[in-house]
Amino acid sequence: MSSENQKKVNDLKSEGNKALETSDFEEAIKKYTEAIALDPENHVLYSNRSAALTKAARYLEALGDADKTIEIKPDWAKGFSRKGTALCYLNRYEEAASVFMEGLKIDPENAQLKNGLEDAQSKLSGPSGSQPLGNPFAAPDIMQRLEANPKTREYLKQPDYRMMIQLLQQNPNSLQSFQDPRIIQTLGVLLGFDLEQKQADASEDKDTEAMPEQTSMPSQRSNSNSQNHSNSVPENQPNSQAQEEKLKGNEAYKKKDFDTAIVHYDKAIELDPKDITFRNNKAAVYFEMKEYDKCIETSEEAINIGRENRADYTLIAKALARAGKAFMKKEDNESALRYLNKSLSEHRNPEIQKIVQVVSLAIRLKKRTY
């Protein structure tokens, strides 16, 4: 990083700290976010933004930043303190206690971690000190609600599914339940939303998506600079040939001609490798094809290239969310939760917040069965 950019980062961090001290949390978040854009591997910036997000009652986003802090610097106890605090505010006390204990392995005398652990453990009042947990399957109208949803209505025609629901109604801890993806889908229905959203997920990046180079590149280019280079193509101008290939890919997708769609997205990537929209779309097609490993791999490429080129944070958030959903399909809920929380740290999406709640619940219930 250049000395000029380092100075900008330090100034923005100081401004964020001052805003935090005066309880201007949104301003603090803004300043830390601007600093992170310049220095995306600075663990202190994510830690500070996590603190500001917690103060602003944006706990899921705070959790995402805490996870990022730990990812960048796993031997730093404060990251665990940030994560445990966010989990406590989300009433996820079992997870919080575990995180505080992990932090204490690094810094056994850390007062914040000790106090956090004590607070989290004091909230655990379920069996054997576990966290009380409501049974979403115990609603009296559960069968009517499952009949009203097209997907679960089909599930109800399957005897083994009905048996699982009956068991869960009686005891949510009785099933090795979350080995069956139908139960995850059912949780989404009971909590009021469709977890899969296949059509929306696979098409969300299509014609309506903004071009990363238009939305994420620095806007401080001077008029004189653009005039001096009036005969050249501006750096942030979309590649028209690449856009044409994207449109062809979109049309192929709509016809369910997925192989052709991928061919066109690959051509678009070759023509304009910095625009992560094309990789996002390609990952969406792999998701629809149920090729989840390829979906995750392509999403990771989009994330890395997007960060290298300072792409629009919403596009990076989409790539992270799609990878998280692919991990859900692979029944790897721990990885799914990690990616979904990272997505929220980039962009607060209410639908992803709901999915995080479902996945967290799935993980907690599954742990109870062992």
UniProtKB/TrEMBL annotation:
Protein name: STIP1
Ranges of compositional bias, category Basic and acidic residues: 200-209
InterPro entries, per the entry: STI1/HOP_DP, TPR-like_helical_dom_sf, TPR_rpt
Example of a GO MF term: Hsp90 protein binding
Pfam family, one: STI1-HOP_DP
Region described as Disordered: 200-246
Key words of the record: Cytoplasm, Repeat, TPR repeat
Ranges of Polar residues composition bias in the record: 233-242
Gene3D superfamilies: 1.10.260.100, Tetratricopeptide repeat domain (1.25.40.10)
TPR repeats: 9-42, 77-110, 242-275
Ranges of compositional bias, category Low complexity: 219-232
Organism: Mytilus edulis
Cell location: Cytoplasm
Gene Ontology CC terms, in alphabetical order: cytoplasm
Signal peptide (UniProt feature, chain positions): none
STI1/HOP DP domain boundaries: 140-192
